[in-house]
Amino acid sequence: MLVMSLIAAFAATAAHAANGPEIDAKRLSQDVKVLSSDEFEGRGPNTAGEVKTVAYLIEQFKAAGLQPGGDLVKGKRAWTQDVPLGRFEIKGPVKLTVSDGKTVQELKQGDDLAVRAAMNGAKLVDFKNAPLVFVGYGVTAPERKWDDFKGQDLKGKLAVVLINDPDFETGEGDFGGKAMTYYGRWTYKYEEMARRGALGTIIVHETAPASYGWNTVKNSNTNVMYDIVRKKPSEAHAPMEAWIQRDLAVDLFKRGGLDFEALKKQAQTRDFKPAELKGVTLSANYAVDAQVITSKNVVARMVGAKKPNETVIYSGHWDHLGIGLPDAKGDKIYNGAIDNGTGIAALLELARAYGKAPAPARSVVFLAVTAEEKGLLGSEYYSANPVYPLATTVGVINMDALSPTGPTRNFTISGSAKLDLLDQLIAKAKQYNLAYTPDPLPEAGHFFRSDHFPFAKRGVPAISYGSGNDLVDGGLDAGRKAEEAYTTNNYHQPSDEWSADWSFTGMQHDLGMLYSLGRDLAESKDWPNWSKDAEFRAARDASAAKRK
């Protein structure tokens, strides 16, 4: 009876909290069901699934009573913002062999290595007997007096690198302990090796420091790749970018006269020096189809009644992985129900709530971005080419992979940023019986993995909201088990599908709070900022004159 009473109390809070609108759990469920249906083909950019998704979002935003807020076309706003992207796909077989001078071993794409389509503009990746060099964590951090390369020339060589930071295993050191810095992200590793002229980068997969299993790596990297259109793509991408199974890497190190575990420990110190896997070489041959396509961000807007040029943004990514490699059951459609059908359903439901209310003083934008799964590309493009100036963007509330189950006693955000916007959210949450729980896995680098980040690095106060794990019905134990089960069994896999068992009452409750937070921002004259010691404070302060 106590659990039922608590759930009833949370439901009442959602319906009747100050400024709280009517949030409909059934509509949330229906939106996720539609967007993650097989008909939408996994919502891959530049596919029939994108066309259906964009049409559905526009239809729902129109019905909510909002206005188009995208590109200016002949003096009028469109519902979308064009996002030009490079599209890269491996065509035909991927031939991979490794030699230790005695034997030649064939490697299998997806099982041994997960090789990405080249994004440097090459139509063919073809090399023979390239040497492998272990470069530790692959970090160059002058401000930390850290250099993993020690003058090593990587031209014509494949750099083998560890995922995450040197501090990950010990939990202490120059990289903030367990919390991942940008140096720990795979994107940084690829970029740094390209800057150094490497033939390729091979990241050793280990589940704990990566924060996900091999299936996620396989499904995310053997698919069609996208990137923003670059003038000099070879400066950002080496010809080969790949991940390797840990056990295979350990074996190759041994065949090259090296001890993987001993070298990994050395790599956690400043004294580490690169080590060549003597006699071990890799050969590769695969063709790449490279072209430029145009995807779409969907932009809906409620124009502010008094300060229309000041903007509050709610965001979420509409895309998922599309159609890819089949799972054990032969399912090729990566439906993306939780990731991120839930965030888009939340965006639509918030739009409906605003559409039923009077316009606030400031404008509110509902931004559904493309190609998050390909590296936050839709939000990166919007941030680099904002429809509404970033200097007068009050803040960004992003929603990604929310829990579709019951209510919780807590909430979190991606990463451990310090900013006024979080303080305001924490204060608002108290009115909704929610306590703030800092990101339980800062080592996973979630701060760099969601669509608020392109805004944040340009100074805009931005957070990515995360559902709590202390379930009203089941507590922390049940919440943690549910998170682990999703990460292991469904994340970036075809099994991320809608379920009729999902109640959506947790989202229903939390969205009442996020509506109220955004509404407060939109009615306010204040400009939230980052803490004085935050790395994004300087970028925000640089545009302070435009907010007077």
Automatic annotation (TrEMBL):
User: Which domain of life does this protein belong to?
Assistant: Bacteria
Transmembrane segment boundaries: none
Secretion signal span: 1-17
Keywords of this entry? Aminopeptidase, Hydrolase, Metal-binding, Protease, Signal, Zinc
| Organism for this UniProt entry | Duganella flavida
Q: What is this protein called?
A: M28 family peptidase
Q: Which residues form the Peptidase M28 domain?
A: 297-503
Which GO biological-process labels does this protein carry? proteolysis
Q: List, alphabetically, the InterPro entries matched.
A: M28_fam, Peptidase_M28
- Pfam families the UniProt entry points to: Peptidase_M28 (PF04389)
One of the entry's Gene Ontology molecular-function terms is:
metalloexopeptidase activity
